[in-house]
Amino acid sequence: MRTRPTATVVLLPVGALALGGLWLGPAIAAASGPPAAVPAAARCQPGLTTISGARYRQFCGPARATVKTGGRVLSFRGGQCSKTSSYIAVNIGAAALGQGPRPARPYFGLVVGKLPGAAVMGGRPAGSDGTYKGVDLAFNYGGTRYLMLSATVALSGDRTTGSFAGKLLTGGQASGTFHC
User: According to the model, what pLDDT value does residue 108 have?
Assistant: First the structure.
């Protein structure tokens, strides 16, 4: 089977606020780890893309997540997990890049731990299974953007699976699981 290497990238909102359905603030992309192999025949094409005039980073792979909020169950499939000794990042779907209005594509993203060189991002290093507090995560679904600040995340299975719960910035609660 032929494979195509792709870079491992962690995207996360920095100083992002959800206001009127628009993200305010830039996104940081931090390279991490060795390139991963993706089957050439995969339907998902990872990397940078333009959709309706807006730039996105498309993530592909086996990662999946489920979010429960407001009586709804939201499912995300086909993403990537990146792990180092100090953090784990989960990105599923298409993350919008840059500022300004753009269509909200399905996306789920969270980073647990301490990113190298990021003095303001991340908490204590997350090099093992356990419970981590103060985690920020973002997800877009059905044209709506959600931001959860200071969530609690429980990692298990050598950081290949986890659960999370917390308050949404716009009000209400959300909880869910992810699997790498």
Answer: 97
CA dist 121 to 46, 171, 180, Å?
25, 23, 22
Cβ 152 vs Cβ 159: under 8 Å:
no
Return d(Cα 58, Cα 24) in angstroms, integer: 20
Cα 136 from Cα 109, distance rounded (Å): 9
User: Which pLDDT value is given to residue 166?
Assistant: 96
* Size (the chain), residues: 180
DSSP 74-134: EEEEEEEEEE-SSEEEEEEEEEE-SSS------EEEEEEEB-TT-SSSB-S---SSEEEEE
- The alpha carbon of 11 is separated from its chain's Cα centroid by a whole number of angstroms, namely 7
**HSE-up (13 A, CA, CB side) for residue 130:** 11
Residues of the chain with pLDDT under 50: 1-42
Name the residue among 143, 140, 139 with its Cα closest to residue 151.
Answer: 139
**How far is residue 168 CA from its own chain's centroid?**
15
* 0.85 surpassed by pTM: no
d(CA 88, CA 115): 9
